[in-house]
């Protein structure tokens, strides 16, 4: 079976008429016991209705398909319907027990499991008979370095111990050599061409299912009554543009401002940007989404929303006609430090019966500053949060040896996830 078979087993556009409320969450990382506990508690007490609620999960539940992923997905599907887009953690392979498998094999397994569990992974029209129908379009993607904003801070990138570089195998997409044709000064171990591969897999959504036609679908379902509002909601795990990066502070600015590095972990942020997502993804989203007219925007009749995951730094902002939302559960330590809100919950984004889009309570650009008290509060929290000792294991690694030789930035770690964690002191280590 080719890895493009996500679209072969069912219609390109599935209908879920009964859905009323649409929620989102990403980066559940239920390998962490605290996150498992969180999920149990929030599903048990969440007042979800399995017939009328849909939860969009934008990737990174767990790499462990035999146990953790299935258990977590079972809890979710017991209480609500689920639409899932795999994240980078789902692409991790077990080299020890399956030395010949690839990450393409792994993603196929993920889609198979989702299909067996009744989890949506394809385009979905919800509430077609409702006043506010919504189209949901899951998009596959990866990262390619195109969101990089400070190559000068990435000269040790080829040694950077980002876990995907060890735990993913992309047959046919090896890292490029430094002297090959790329705009990146240091492509390191990025699997070049992989984003184009995944975006090409999204193309059937454009070829066979142009979205203006879906308005006709909804009108027909509504006995030709025009909906009060319609929305198109795209979903990816990875970041689509520089504005969605954790450090990007001013949406009106075209260039990154080094003053935004006030947290002191700029080198980490610059390197994370290279594994965060792809500008090609936003190009595809904007090609997919019809541009709303000024009247549409003023009347709220047509809404464009993109949900993403991966960075563990919450976002909710509108940029050039699209609302971008990142609502991660993240790691326990990130909640302790207010990188992610300690009160994080499933975010309601659409109601097909009453309001259509559920507006943001407030714009979110840098949550730890806007709601978490900023640097002074962070310094207090850091003093009371145990540092992660596991990073000491990597002292003496090629990365740290390279740093010693070239006096590179202070960060030292194996990084499974996440960008800047403000360095309120010299020993602060970002979380995984
Ligand atoms: Fe991720």
Automatic annotation (TrEMBL):
Source superkingdom: Eukaryota
GO molecular function ontology, one term from the record: hydrolase activity
Annotated Low complexity bias: 403-423
Residue ranges of every copy of the Calcineurin-like phosphoesterase domain listed in the record: 21-114
Species assigned in the record: Seminavis robusta
Protein name, entry field: Calcineurin-like phosphoesterase domain-containing protein
Disordered: annotated segments: 391-432
Annotated TM spans: none
SUPFAM superfamilies recorded: Metallo-dependent phosphatases
InterPro entries per UniProt: Calcineurin-like_PHP, Metallo-depent_PP-like, Pantetheine_PDE
Pfam family, any one: Metallophos
């Amino acid at each position: 079976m080719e890895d493009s078979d996500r679209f072969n087993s069912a219609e390109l556009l599935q209908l879920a008429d009964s859905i009323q409320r649409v929620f989102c969450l990403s980066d559940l990382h239920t390998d962490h016991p605290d996150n498992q506990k969180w999920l149990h508690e929030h599903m048990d007490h969440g007042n979800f209705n399995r017939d009328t609620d849909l939860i969009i999960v934008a990737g990174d539940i767990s790499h462990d398909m035999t146990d953790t992923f299935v258990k977590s997905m079972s809890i979710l599907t017991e209480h609500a319907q689920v639409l899932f887009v795999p994240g980078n953690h789902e692409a991790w392979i077990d080299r020890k027990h399956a030395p010949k498998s690839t990450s393409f094999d792994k993603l196929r397994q993920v889609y198979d499991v989702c299909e067996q569990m009744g989890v949506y992974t394809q385009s979905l029209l919800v509430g077609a008979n409702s006043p506010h129908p919504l189209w949901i379009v899951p998009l596959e993607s990866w990262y390619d370095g195109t969101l990089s904003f400070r190559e000068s801070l990435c000269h040790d990138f080829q040694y950077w111990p980002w876990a995907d570089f060890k735990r993913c195998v992309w047959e046919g997409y090896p890292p490029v050599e430094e002297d090959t044709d790329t705009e990146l000064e240091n492509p390191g171990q990025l699997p070049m061409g992989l984003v184009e591969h995944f975006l090409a897999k999204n193309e059937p959504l454009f070829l066979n299912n142009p979205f203006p036609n879906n308005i006709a679908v909804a009108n027909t379902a509504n006995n030709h009554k025009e909906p009060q509002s319609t929305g198109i909601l795209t979903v990816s795990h990875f970041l689509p543009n520089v504005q969605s990066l954790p450090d990007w502070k001013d949406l009106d600015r075209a260039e990154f401002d080094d003053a935004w590095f006030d947290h002191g972990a700029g080198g980490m942020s610059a390197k994370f940007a290279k594994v965060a997502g792809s500008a090609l993804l936003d190009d595809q989203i904007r090609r997919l989404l019809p541009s709303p007219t000024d009247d549409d925007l003023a009347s709220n009749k047509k809404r464009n929303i993109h949900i993403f995951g991966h960075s563990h730094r919450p976002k909710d902002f509108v940029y050039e006609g699209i609302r971008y939302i990142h609502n991660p559960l993240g790691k326990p330590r990130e909640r302790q430090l207010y990188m992610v809100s300690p009160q994080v919950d499933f975010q309601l984004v659409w109601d097909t019966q009453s309001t259509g889009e559920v507006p943001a309570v407030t714009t979110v650009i840098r949550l730890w500053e806007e709601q978490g008290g900023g640097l002074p509060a962070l310094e207090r929290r850091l003093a009371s949060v145990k540092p992660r000792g596991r990073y000491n294991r990597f002292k003496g690694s090629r990365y740290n040896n390279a740093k010693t030789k070239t006096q590179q930035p202070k960060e030292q770690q194996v990084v499974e996830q996440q960008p800047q964690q403000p360095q309120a002191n010299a020993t602060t280590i970002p979380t995984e």
